Amino acid sequence: MMRLAGTDLACVRGGRQVFRGLSFTLGAGEALLVTGPNGAGKSSLLRLVAGLVRPDAGRLDFEGGDPELTVGEQVHYLGHQDALKSSLSVRENLAFWAHFLGGEPAKGEAALAAVGHDGLARLPASYLSAGQRRRLSLARLIAVERPIWLLDEPTTALDTLGQAMLAELMRVHLAGSGLILAAAHGPIGLEKSKELRLGIGR
């Protein structure tokens, strides 16, 4: 059974302590919603779990995953930027990420259909709206299977239908024993998620 745990984590960015003494536990099929004001460390926590930021103190443990891989190699990190190449088509962008993340290119078409982009596969990414770009980024989550999803304000730029689509993707991931750690200012469609509230100075 998979289990992700952070113990007495501390993070320093730009000489400022963002948080300290932070602990959490997340089991298979569970979601943790990280809330709090701007600057409280929500994004920093996700980046720390992803291996993009080193903890100043504390430890991060992931049980039940692939022992040959780091925690960062077993997560999907969806940040504020959609990280798309404007000159490539929708299909080519997803194929690039599938190859980069070690996935199977054959799953790309199903992933595009799941986010409603099967009819836009040949369109250059530069033609996409902000919401369409976000949907394409979400397609990476299902094109390449990884147990931990780290979602930073995932509903950004999504309309009502897009938010409902995201909620369904998250429900399916959790039903398959996946884990979700999401940072947001408000609800994102996870009805039974745990909450970790961060505050300035905590």
Which helices and strands appear, and what pairs or packs with what?
Blueprint: E1 3-13, E2 16-27, E3 31-35, H1 42-49, E4 57-63, E5 75-78, H2 90-100, H3 108-114, H4 130-143, E6 148-152, H5 160-175, E7 179-183, E8 194-197
Helix pairs in contact: 2-4, 3-4
Give structural notes:
- Helices cover 28% and strands 26% of the residues.
- It has helices spanning 42-49, 90-100, 108-114, 130-143, 160-175, and strands at residues 3-13, 16-27, 31-35, 57-63, 75-78, 148-152, 179-183, 194-197.
- The protein has a 5-stranded parallel beta sheet with strand order 5-6-7-3-8, sandwiched between helices.
The helicity comes to 25-40%
Mean pLDDT: 92
Would you count the extended β strands for me?
Answer: 8
Strand content: 25-35%
**Oligomeric state of the chains present here:** single chain
Integer-rounded radius of gyration: 17 Å
Low-confidence stretches: none
The strands making up the biggest β-sheet line up spatially as 5-6-7-3-8
Task: Give me some keywords for this one.
8 strands, alpha/beta, 202 residues
Summarize this, please?
The chain has 202 residues and is an alpha/beta fold. Helices cover 28% and strands 26% of the residues.
